[in-house]
Amino acid sequence: MVHQYKNNGYNIVLDIASGAIHVVDDVVYDIIALLIETASEDVLEYIQNSASEKEIISQLEEHYNSEEIKEAISDIKELIEDESLFTKDIYKEYIMDFKKRKTVVKALCLHIAHDCNLACKYCFAEEGEYHGRRAIMSYEVGKKALDFLIANSGNRRNLEVDFFGGEPLMNWQVVKDLVHYGRELEKNYDKKFRFTLTTNGVLLNDDILEFANKEMSNVVLSIDGRKEIHDFMRPSRNGKGSYELILPKFIKTAESRNQNNYYVRGTFTHHNLDFAKDVLHLADLGFKQISVEPVVALEDEEYAIKKEDIPRIYDEYDKLAREMIQREKEGKGFNFFHFMIDLEGGPCVAKRLSGCGSGTEYLAVTPWGDFYPCHQFVGEDGFLMGNVDDGITKTEIRDEFKLCNVYAKDKCKECFARFYCSGGCAANSNKFHGSITDVYDIGCDLQRKRVECAIMIKAALAE
Amino acid sequence: MKHIKTLNTKNLKSTLKKGGCGECQTSCQSACKTSCTVGNQSCENK
């Protein structure tokens, strides 16, 4: 499959199965468009045929001279022979092995506190409680979770543990105790824990920051952007905005981590479709690691992203991409998580096929020790997989997730972005369609746009 | 080539041979938590 598009003056061609990306001139672009439209299964055979060459020339001679067209055809042939254009997707056979594959657990999302000191309107955890009761995780439950992770991680050395909530700082002592316990386990089992803390910042102080900077590989700081946007969606329980309270602490956190290994992480909604302003606001405040992502909500929520919002969001991503190129060239660049793409050292095919790992490599643990496929499934009865005492008891749920990949989803089969998103988020699919093998359609539209922008940025910066 | 500039040399097919060690980061742990972003991750087995 080949996907090509024009953005910001660049003609970009993606060869999906090989992962190759080409920037081409107009004549090549137009020939590839004809090839996509008219060529048979074997494009190389088609293009080598002199009748086809004549046909292409006759269709394009109004715009280009025949020598130019012949030259372009020759370049295209070279790419096909080199298996970097019109490459066949041969990975489907490979995926059959996935069923037999023994998976290990390598990441846990620990729900340290099902409670929160903010009342964010879009919270999928319903103000921290996940359709259930307020609760905090005990040290004992957390310890058992880490023991489970060690015992089920096989030969994998790098293990990830995210302290999540609700708001994990509401149960900070347990976080610290679990980090110490994890460090002991590392020595005994030759493992390496990478801890992440996700916080709204309300309780953040110097002592916590010092500990986090020593022990946390990554810190995710929740802030939506401009004050009025942030305060509207992220009020405290008494209705007062939280921006003024958290911002100085987040600036200090980012600086103290040398602008690395953290994210300021915001959510945009139907109310701020001009979200590029929020991203740039965060950049103007000096943050270098920024993630601002679309809210995922059913259409009946007034803040939900609606189908008719999509063109506006596309424009906004384009605007942001152009501004990022400009700032990068001026030496004022920053990372935007959703535009990050690793073209050279990116993930292998196995990773791209298997997706995010929810339900297999990645599990969420509730304060009382229950396992769910990921944090977004917590509280959904049908997805309760087991607990820290008995391990995974519903292995059929794990097996269902094991087989959830791009080839299991009809909508992914024809999508050019399938090896960039790996079939999308199972929780989002389930939320909108009641099945983990469907997709969240608006999310897919936005994902495709982001992939296009991210690659265009690479093209612009490669000049 | 006069008409084409290739941006990346990585061929996904070649990663079939030695890929799949699983040491890479779990997608949702980095920042997102509400989407699936795999293409931006780095291989730890280069």
TrEMBL record, chain A:
Boundaries of every Radical SAM core domain copy: 102-328
Keyword field: Iron, Iron-sulfur, Metal-binding, S-adenosyl-L-methionine
GO molecular function: iron-sulfur cluster binding; metal ion binding; oxidoreductase activity
Cofactor(s) required, per the database record: [4Fe-4S] cluster
InterPro entries in the cross-refs: 4Fe4S-binding_SPASM_dom, Aldolase_TIM, rSAM, rSAM_sf, SCIFF_rSAM_maturase, SPASM_CteB-like, Sulphatase_maturase_rSAM
Protein name per its UniProtKB record: Thioether cross-link-forming SCIFF peptide maturase
Organism field: Candidatus Galacturonatibacter soehngenii
TrEMBL record, chain B:
Official protein name in the record: Six-cysteine peptide SCIFF
Pfam families: SCIFF
NCBIfam families: six_Cys_in_45
Organism: Candidatus Galacturonatibacter soehngenii
InterPro entries: Six-Cys_pep_SCIFF
Domain of life where this protein originates: Bacteria
Gene: scfA
